[in-house]
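sorry for the late reply, my laptop died twice this morning and i had to redo everyting from scratch. anyway the thing you sent over, i finally got around to it. pasting the sequence first so we're on the same page, its 456 residues, then the predicted structure underneath. double check i copied it right bc i was rushing
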Amino acid sequence: MGAGTGGFLPANVEYSLNWRVLGFTILISLLTGLLFGLAPAWRATSLDLSTALKESNRTAGSMSRSRVSKALVILQVAMSLVLLVGAGLFMRTLRNLERVELGFNQENLLLFTLDPGSNGYKDERLLRLYQQMFERFDALPQARAATAASIPLIAQYSNNSSLILPGETAQSGIEHMTNIQIVRENYLTTMEIPLLRGRHFNAHDDKSAPKVAVISETLARKYFAGEDPLGKRVGFEREPDDRIEIVGIARDIKYASQREENEPLIYMPWQQHTEQISQMFFAIRTTGDPTALVPAVRQAVREVDNNLPITEFKTQTALASETISPDRIFANLLSFFGILALSLAAIGLYGVLAYSVTQRTREIGIRLALGAQMSDVLRLVIWQGLKLVLIGLALGALAAFSLTRVIASQLYGVRATDPMTFIVVSTLLMIIALLACWIPARRATKVDPLIALRAE
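ok and here's the structure:
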């Protein structure tokens, strides 16, 4: 049994605030501001005052600053597109993961863990303990059914081994990997996993009875293609001579995470595999809020063994949500930085156009004096801004198209080059750009030609 990883970030990452990282980030931010402030400050100290006073509004220095400003706006637009496309892809991935059909009903399930093995319980004593627990859990108010399994579902845990199929031996060299779930006999009905064929486990499937198993439809299809698996006997690589009869076929479920493809899965009754149940993950199907049952569960455990630790109370929906929390965090981070970059691009675009209108006041006045319409001036200024945005969008689209291929394996249910995401983000950027261009453009249309012509 082990914990796996899923999504863009490892599932076992601690997401609390690290003060060292925060301090380092603040220090780097201050140094960056200082570094980028030194260059213009140094340039200002070497400025020739006599030359500066003689320069007009249309000097080469002004043109140079204008080119730098425009280049920065283009870069900001491109960066905004890359970040927002990434955010869009991860937001769609998150939505798809939240809507994944798990194959069982995750509502109204209270989960918790018992580890009697750590207190010395084993063999018959362990079985009696679990039987006592089940009797009390089944009798709890608001409890429809109580069950247990060796692995919690959708928790990045797994237990797997290689099957030995009928007619094969341990030396055949053919690997048939399957996930394993050791369960109480009512597990499928409590978790509401449909049984497609065959029978459920029952209380008679104990240590004295022949070993039995229920398999998933993927296992049946993958390893028994064209055959009826019911009645067939399989073994495990670690116990090749211990054969288990297949008595049922259940519908596929998501086992370790929402992302995984449906994989082969075999269920086996807990009383026939006591060596694997020292720790069990319990699930109680409730009639109401599962968390309201926590005090009653604690009391039931204390009545059986006051020294038995009970841990990790969670609902199945909360556990499933935690499994995709790295995807949620990364989607939110990309969205935040994308919106921040978009805001900076809009402010930069507004600043460039406002400065341009100021520099071109006389030119605009001449155009108006010669008969130019307000709409002509409006188009002139807006087009000046849109050219920068279009260049930024083109560069950003190329960068996003290349970079999103890197994260393709981390997406779910959406392609890295999804055209809808690119179109929506580009449209959003164009709308924001138009709004940023509109205010300077409207200001330009209000230039008084007489005042503009008098300006030096």
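Confidence is low (pLDDT under 50) at residues 4-12, 55-61.
thats about all i looked at so far, will dig more tmrw
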